[in-house]
Amino acid sequence: MYPNPPPYYDNNGYQPEYNHIYENQIPNNIYQPYPIPPPYVSQVPQYLPQVTPHQSVPANQQTSSRKWISLSRKKICIVSTIIILAAAIIIAAVLCWYYLTTRCEKQCGTSSSCVRASQWCDGTAQCPNGEDESYCVRLYGQNFILQAYSPARSSWLSICFDDWNSVNGPTVCRSMGYKSSSYYNYFLENVPSDHKEFASINTSVPFIKLHTSIRTRDYCPSGRVISLRCIDCGQSTKQVPSSRIVGGTAARSGDWPWQVSLLIRQSHVCGGSIITPDWIVTAAHCVEGNYAYPSLWTVYAGSTQKLGGQAFLVDKIISHPNYNTETKDNDIALMRLKTSLSFTGSNIKPVCLPNAGMPWTDTQPCWISGWGYTYQGGSTSNTLMAASVPLITSSVCNAPSVYNGVITSNMICAGFLSGGVDSCQGDSGGPLVTKTKDLWWLVGDTSWGNGCAQRNKPGVYGNVTVFLEWIYHHMQMYT
Predict the structure, then answer these.
(1) Can you name the residues that pair with 298 across neighbouring β-strands?
(2) Which of 15-29, 200-214, 237-251 has the lowest average pLDDT?
(3) H or E element, residue 443
C-alpha cells in the first residue's frame, strides 16, 4: 500500500503519445482470450440419503457401551496430544535447520527465490533462471576494476595483473554479454586502498570463465589490478551544460550520441539510450500492453532531428518482469536491434552503463535530453533538447510535500524543487546521464512525474544501477 495520495499520472506527465497514433486500434497479431465456458452443472441425479429405522437397545448394554466409549476417548485424546507435540517439535527442528543452512543471503535476480552466498557462482544453477551463474563477473567503480565473485569467500575479488594474459580480456567481455567486435582494451590500476581481497588467474586450469579460473589471494604481488573496458563508451563532444528541455536549448550534433528516437508509424513516442551496438535501454511503460510488439517500432539514431538519422528495426523487446503499471516501479525495458549499430562516426556512440560502487553524490549534476514537449500541454520538439538537473535524494523526494513516500529504491529523482526545468511528455525512456572521470554514464531512464517542471514535482527516473544484473543477464542470453 502506498501513502495517500497515490502517484498521479496525468496526461502532461511522461506518458507515450499513443492516442493520436492508434486511436483504439489493436495490432492484428494480438490474440483475443478464449471465451469463458458456462459454470459446470452436474448431470448426475442427486439422491436423498436413506435412513435406517431405529432399533432399541437394552439399558445395561447402553451403560457398558458408554463407559467403554468414554475410556477410549480419553486414550485417543492422550495419544493425539503426544503425536501433535512430537510433530510440532520435529517441524520446529526442521525449520531451524533450514533457516540456519539455507537462509536467504542472495536473491535470484527479479524472482523471489534466494540462495546462500556460497551457492552463488558455484557452477550449479540454483536460481529458477540461472541468475546465480550469470552475474559472476562485474566491473567496479569509475575505473572499471574487474572483479569475480568467490563463493568460498562470499565476496567480490579484484583481479590482479599477476598471471593476466591479454587474450583474457575479450573472453571475459563475451561472458558478460558484449560482442567481440566491441571490445576496447584493458588497463592497469594501482591497488585501491579499500580493496582487501584479490584473485589472480590460475594458469594450471584452462581459462574458460573468469570466476572458475582464479585462485584467491590476500594481496597483489604486482600492486596492480585489471581495469577492463568491454566497449568504448561515454564519449561526447559536449562541453558546457545546456539550459532545459521545457522551453530549453537545442542540442548540437554529437552532444548526446547515445540518444535515440523510438517511433511508431513515423510518429515519435519515446526516447532511448544506446548501450551496445545491439541494445537500447528505454522505459517499460513505453512498450507495455499492445505496444510490446517489436514489429511496431522503428529506432532512429545519429541525428538531433526527430525524424533524422538512420532507421533500425527492432528484433526483441524485454520489459522488466516486475514492472508495475500503476506505480511505475521497475520502469525499464530493453530493445534488441535487428541490425547492429556502427560507431565509426561521432553521432552514434554508446553511453556507459554504471558500474557497481559509482561515487555519485546526493546532488550529482546530471543531464536529460529528448524530443518531448517544450512546455506542459504543448507538443513535441523537432530538435533534440537538453537540460542540466541535479540528483535529489530519496528522502527529500519522498517528503509529504513532494511525492509523499512513493519513491522506491528502483527510482531516482532529479530536478529542482523550485520547478522550471524538467522532462516532459515524449521524453519517456530517454537518458538521465552524468559525467564522471571524463566519461558519460547512464544514471536513469525517464519514467514519470506530476506535470512538467512544476514546483515540488521533479522528474522520476528508473535507477539503472539497480538493474545492472538484469541487463547483463539478458545481454548474455541473446548476444
Answers:
(1) 263, 313
(2) 15-29
(3) strand 439-448
Which amino acid is it at 307?
L
Measured distance CA(420)–CA(431) in Å, rounded: 19
d(CA 58, CA 436): 99
Query: What values do phi and psi take at 460, rounded to 5?
Result: -115, 135
Q: Cα dist. 141→56, 121, 158 in Å?
A: 91, 21, 11
For residues 127 and 150, what is the distance between their CA atoms, to the nearest angstrom? 17
Q: Which domains does the chain have, with CATH numbers?
A: 126-229 (3.10.250.10), 249-470 (2.40.10.10)
CA–CA separation, 235 vs 107, rounded Å?
34
> Exposed, middle or buried: residue 3 (CB in 10 Å: 0-12, 13-18, 19+)?
exposed
Residues tagged active-site: 285, 331, 428
Read off the pLDDT of residues 399-423 as tens digits, 9 standing for 90 and up. 999 999 999 999 999 999 999 888 9
Instruction: Name which of 41-50, 319-328, 343-352 the model is least confident about.
Output: 41-50
Give yes or no for a contact between 288 and 308, defined as CB atoms under 8 angstroms apart. no
Backbone dihedral angles phi then psi of residue 468, each to the nearest 5 degrees: -55, -50
User: Do β-strands 214-217 and 249-250 pair in parallel, antiparallel, or remain unpaired?
Assistant: unpaired
| Single-letter residue type at 64 | S
Place of cell 541468475: 131
**CA torsion, ordered 156, 160, 165, 169, to nearest 10 deg:** 40
What share of the chain has pLDDT > 90, as a percent? 60
CA 399-403-409 angle, to 5 degrees, is 85
Q: Which of 402, 412, 473, 418 is nearest to 442 (CA)?
A: 412
Q: Are 183 and 230 in contact (CB under 8 A)?
A: yes
In whole angstroms, what is the distance from residue 411 CA to residue 459 CA?
Answer: 10
- For the chain, helix (H) and strand (E) counts, in that order, are 5, 22
Residue 458: partners with Cβ closer than 8 Å, 6 or more residues away: 389, 392, 397, 402, 413, 414, 415, 416, 417, 422, 449
Residue 477 near residue 461 (C-beta atoms within 8 A): no
Inter-axis angle of helices 168-176 and 468-478, nearest 10: 100
Q: Under a CB-based contact definition with an 8 Å cutoff, are residues 427 and 368 in contact?
A: yes
Sign of CA dihedral 399, 424, 436, 232: positive
Q: Is the pLDDT of residue 440 over 90?
A: yes
Q: What angle do CA 447, 451, 455 make, to 5 degrees?
A: 110
**For residue 157, what are the β-bridge partners?**
148
Q: Is 476 helix (H, G, I), strand (E, B) or coil?
A: helix
Q: What is the DSSP letter of 232?
A: -
Residue with cell 506505480: 327
Predicted pLDDT at 9: 36
φ, ψ dihedrals at 219, nearest 5° = -160, 165
